[in-house]
Amino acid sequence: MAKQSILGRISQLVRANINALIDQAEDPQLMLDQLVRDYTNSIADAEQAVAQTIGNLRLAEADYAEDVAAAKEWGGKALAASQKADNLRSSGQTGEGDKFDALAKVALSKQISFENEAKAEAPQIASQGEVVEKLKTGLIGMKSKLDELQTKRDQLVARAKTAEAQSKVQEAVKSIDILDPTSEVSRFEDKVRRVEAQVAGQSELAASSLDAQFEELEDDTTNAEVEARLSELKGIGAGATPAVEPASE
After folding, report:
1. pLDDT in tens, 95-128
2. Among residues 168, 145, 157, which one has the least CA distance to residue 28?
3. Contacts of 118 (CB under 8 A, 6+ apart)
């Protein structure tokens, strides 16, 4: 997997607008579950690619260090050979001095070769180092995004369960409304009130009849007394003698 494609994929995932994706999804929970799986797989791929890129960078750095060390070593050999040549010439050994100068030139050639290799490797190492840092930053962003996704999913699942519970409550309330048990209570209450009214009516009727009976009794008593007094009057009238006036002298 090429570094650029990895970088592009990481950047695309990090820039993803989770809220917008949720709004567009027909089933947000399924979409988030899929996104979590995609992010997890992408992070695993990215980590593998980053590890490989870091490994390559470390190899390049090691090669660069070896080239720099080799250039320094050959520079030291060139200096030693040149000094040896000068000492030999000073002692009159011109031929031997030329031989060591030739060796110094070979060493200098080696030094230049390793220096050129190091110079060529330096920008590649710097570029690879920038890529590694970008990949590491991208991975951090992806993991942060994955945490956000998982949080969103958990929140959504909790909200869905709450909504489902509320929906069941609402359905239960609707079913209660449809059955309307209060109407049954009202009908029973009306029935009780009617019975109570009937009992009250019967009591009132019974009281009225009793009053009527007492009134009738009182009437009978009054009539009996009237009759008795009438008889008494008649008896007095029948047994009385007219008063005799005395004779005048």
Report:
1. 999 999 999 999 999 999 999 999 999 999 999 9
2. 157
3. 64, 67, 68, 71
* CA 210 to the chain's CA centroid: 79
* Tens-digit pLDDT profile for residues 15-54: 555 555 555 555 667 777 777 888 888 888 888 888 988 9
10 Cβ contact list (under 8 Å, min separation 6): 42, 46, 135, 138, 139, 141, 142
Distance between CA atoms of residues 22 and 27, nearest Å: 8
Q: Which residue has the tokens 């870091």?
A: 54
Helix axes of 3-15 and 28-90: crossing angle, nearest 10 degrees: 140
Residues with Cβ within 8 Å of 139's Cβ and at least 6 positions away in sequence, in order, are 10, 43, 46, 47, 50
Would the CA dihedral through 70, 71, 76, 81 be positive or negative? positive
